[in-house]
Amino acid sequence: MHTCVLICAYLDVIFDLMAIHCKVNADFGCMQSHIFLLNCDVCCSFPLPEMLEAHRKYGGMGTLLVIKVSAESANQFGELVADPVTNELLHYTEKPETFVSDRINCGVYIFTPDIFSAIESVSTQWKDRADLRRLSSFESLHSATRNAPTHFVRLDQDILSPLAGKKQLYTYETLDFWEQIKTPGMSLKCSGLYLSQFRFTTPHLLLSGDGTKSASIIGDVYVHPSAKIHPSAKIGPNVSISANARIGAGVRLISCIILDNVEIKDNAVVIHAIVGWKSSIGRWSRVQASSKNLYLGGHGGNYNSKLGITILGEAVTVEDEVVVINSVVLPHKTLNVSVQEEIIL
Fold first, then answer.
1. pLDDT digits (tens, 9 = 90+) for 149-163
2. What DSSP letter does each residue of 97-124 carry, written as one string?
């Protein structure tokens, strides 16, 4: 029986060989394990059981999750070519200047412990090359004063590209959704994608209501069982309401994430926003993205814009009849005047 080790990392992470290697050795000395490496800025269905089954079938060192995208957007990611029959990774290049393929790397991997030998080999080659040249005085000073290790291995350029076409790496293509979270607005889009997935995988998590005995629900909406919502409120689509939130009479929520212990008072409106823990939005107040970032009645937005949404940090108070548009408010602030396109420090 194999053990699986899960490692989460930010996209473009540089592999810290010794930290990961020592961690796995300490926890799983026999090294009969599979290592799952997931980039933390990735939103997808994470078909890990299916990937693992395919990985074992391939018998290689690693398996990459891939997806087909438009040719116009492919060069923003790592493009790859795989054998259509065996799914072996034949060629990999990171953000190429010219079009290579419409299949891209999703940032989700399964490796065998052999990956550490490959990383160590690259690291040793780097050390040997470094020993052959004389360091400048600036480089010597920089090396002596920095705390981080001086040798890192880049997963894409130093592992994936050289091992492509050597029957070591394989691909598993997903037909589900995939997005990269690079802007605040993408958090809302990804929340909507997961809510849509709930409709097919766990529909009991989604709320329903016609506005008579319970709140009127439109589209995909998740509400934690401990949250309290007035029957006259109108919620959705694409709304997630967390634990112990309190939603007052006549409140309208569209495309937003409401975190724990938030209070939204009577007749307030929240559109295309993230409301942080323990925040409070006063009566007849409005928290939303700018009008140019809303369309289709406020159901969508420009997710890729630099901001595109309004974010309230933890324990922010928006007093009655205050409008907050396309702004970021840091924690523990109180707003008693309307603001637009501002960062409140």
1. 445 667 888 888 899
2. SS---SEEEEEEEEE-THHHHHHHHHHH
